[in-house]
Amino acid sequence: MHLEAALGPTGSAAPPSLQPESGTPRLGTTLGRYVIERRLGQGGMGAVYAARDPELDRKVALKLLHPGLAEPGSQARARLRREAQSLARLSHPAVVGIHDVGTAGDHVFIAMELVEGSTLSQWLDRARRTVPQILEVFVRAGEGLAAAHRAGLVHRDFKPDNVIVSADGRVRVVDFGLARTIAHEPPDVDASASISQAGDILGTPGYMSPEQYAGRPASARTDQFCFCVSLFEALHGLRPFPGGDPLAVAAQTVLGQVRRVRTPGVSARLDRIVRRGLNPGPQDRFPSMPALLGELAREALVRRRGLVGRVIGAAVMMFSLCASMLRPVPPQSPHRPAASAAFAPKRAAGARMPEGSRAPDHSGLSG
Asked: Which range marks the domain in which residue 26 is found?
């Protein structure tokens, strides 16, 4: 499949037949055993709702396909089922959990853990984040990807909009709809093993790897590339590959033409780490997500230690200054100033004065 056909006129990598249709459930209605409460978001293939499970008395997130895409055998239905199966294989704090999958009338849905929070994109836009803060959140998200890889899964669509930062600071990777499994492979699959099928061009333009653009099989190192695109964007405020349209960005990505930018707070070592994950050849990236995350965690630790050292140094200087200002000044004679030691005559201990000489009289009483 050609890249132009995969991207389509809107720049989306979803198949052109998957277009949204009307027929969404009304708020307050029941879908299966779940009561729809509010809509959380909507995309080209469906919508996500906050709902309540009255039987278990808990809040859930319902991901629904648009009714027109839910026919048996449709690509959208297969993708939703694949997402449910992928999440069912995972149990990790950094991956959203799944509760149920089912149908109700024309609707096909999966019920997932409801995470109250914001996307990573929103979290980055809400306030000016420090480099250690960014690294901490990305390392947690990367741990979710590493857990997926250990379960024999590759996400294939990692981006800031597919990471949720909850109100309590927890980080979770979501939307495994493009995930692929390794057939007949054990859970401890090698990080470079192929997962997707050749010829698939799926993902989000701007975050996709060269192998995704080329329709080659994806691997765990594909997720690593998408992760580093997102991290580069978080650190520098723009994506690593320039271009005025998706095709130009794709060409720069395949060629490995990463922008040369200098951002205050981003060290040369951190820049080298991220750029290694952006190599066009998967063999030139880190051997696994844990290897990449280990480097990022060490960089974050160095940053924290440096910050603590600077804070302690500043506190010591401030304490010394305050102590010198509060130190009492010794009283001086009211008749004359104290002699300065710098101008006192110096004589080695036990030394004798030359004959016919006497020690100088500073009393002012000599005749």
From this structure: 18-113
